[in-house]
Sequence to fold (465 residues):
Amino acid sequence: MAKTSRAFVCQACGAVTARWSGKCGSCGEWNSIVEETAPAGSPALIAIKGGKGRGGSGRLASFETLAEATLDAPRLQTGIAELDRVLGGGLVPGSAVLVGGDPGIGKSTLLLDAAAKLSTTGARVVYLSGEEATAQVRMRAKRLGLEQAPVALGTETNLANIIATLGSSAPPALVVIDSVQTLWSESIEAAPGTISQLRGCASALISHAKSSGLTLVLVGHVTKDGQIAGPKVIEHMVDTVLYFESLSGHQFRILRAVKNRFGPTDEMGVFEMRYEGLKEVDNPSALFLSDRDRGAPGTAVFAGMEGTRPILVEIQALVGPSALGTPRRAVVGWDTNRLAMLIAVLEARCRVRLAGHDVYLNVAGGLRLNEPAADLATAAALLSSFTGRPAPEDTVYLGEVSLTGAIRAVGHMDQRLREAAKLGFVRATVPAAAGAGQRQAQGLGLLPMSQLDELVAWFGAGSVE
Fold:
C-alpha cells in the first residue's frame, strides 16, 4: 500500500501549510483550512524525487524550431455570435473552457443553448448536470424551445464513471460539466468541492480532453468576492476562462474573457436576459444609450473599447454639498481610486473646489469600465453636475487625464469615432495629440484639448466654489 503524505490546504485560496490554524495566512479566511492526503505516487511527489515514478526514469523530450509551419486552430461555431466572439471565433477542439458567474446569472442557460445549437449541426454533444436533475434541465430546454435538440443528457458526478463513459465510444465534439465543484474521485480522500477534488478531477478531465480531441466546458461557482472558487488551482489548468457579470436589477449580462490561449483576453459579449433565455445584443451602444437622460446636467457619453468592439456608454455624476465632515464618494461601474485621483487633479490643477461636496458616479446600463480613456468623460460629467450646465447631447468624450492635468491620447481612435458617428453624434472632445491638424474625422467635428483646464473653462467651473 502506497504511503500517503498529509497537508493542510486552504479551501478558499489553495495555500498549503504544514499544520492547521484557524485563519489562513495567505487570504485571511477563517476556518477554511482542511487536512487532506495525497498518495506518495502523486505527480507533485514524483517531480520532487527527480522524475522517477513507478515506471522508472522518464523519456527524452523532443524539440522543434520556431520556423515550423503552424496551422490555425480549427473552430466549432456554437451558433451564438456573442459567445463565439468572446471565445475568439468559436470552440477549439481539445481545449478546456472554464465559465464562472453568480448563481442564477445564466451560465447553464447559455451553455445549454450553445450545446443544443451545436448538436443540431450533427456534432455529438454531452451535457452532464451535477446540480440539477434531468427533469429540471429538460424543463429549461422546453422553455428555451430546445427540447428537440439531440443533446445527450446525464447527471453523473463520479470522475471514473464520466471518463469511462466518454472513452467507451467515439469522443463527442463538446462536453459540458455543470458544475466542476460537484465532481468527486474515489482516489482522493476529500469532500466534493475541496481544493484536492477540484485539482484532481479537473486535471483528469483536461488530460482526457487533450488526448481525445473533445472540447471540455466546466462551469464554476464564484465566491463572495466574485472569484471562481479555487482560482489558483483551476484557472491555470484550462485554456480559456470566461466570467459572467451583471449588476443586481439589470437585465443585461456581460460575458468577459479573462484568459484565452486561442484569442484576445479583453473581448466582451453582451446578452439580455428574457423569459425565453439569453438573447444576443448586436449593438450594445444603442442599447446602453436607449434611455439616456438628454439635456440633464451631470451626464456625458464616453466612447470606449471592449476588446475589438467600440461601445458608447453614458456616465452619470451627481455632485452636491455635503453635510458630513468627510464627503461621500460612491462609485458604480468604475474604479473608486481613479475617481479620487480625478477629483484631486480638479482640486489641485484646476481650482475646482469639490472637497466639501458628495460625489456619486454611475456607469449606466450595468457596464463596468476599466480603461483610463474614460477620465475625460467622467470629468465632463462631474463638471456638468457641479455647475448645473448640461453637456452637449451630440458630443462624445474620450481621453486620459494625467496627474499634471494634461489630456493624453488613447488608442483605437478610428473605431471609437466611427461608432459615435454611426449613432448620430456630430462632435468629439479628444486629446489634442489625436486631433492635431484635423478638423473632422469619421464624419465628426473634433474639439481637441491638451489640458483639463480647457474643459473646466468651457463649463465655467473654475470660479465656482
Q: What stands out?
A: The two ends are 79 Å apart (CA to CA). The domain at 290-459 is CATH 3.30.230.10 (Ribosomal Protein S5; domain 2). The longest helix spans residues 195-212.
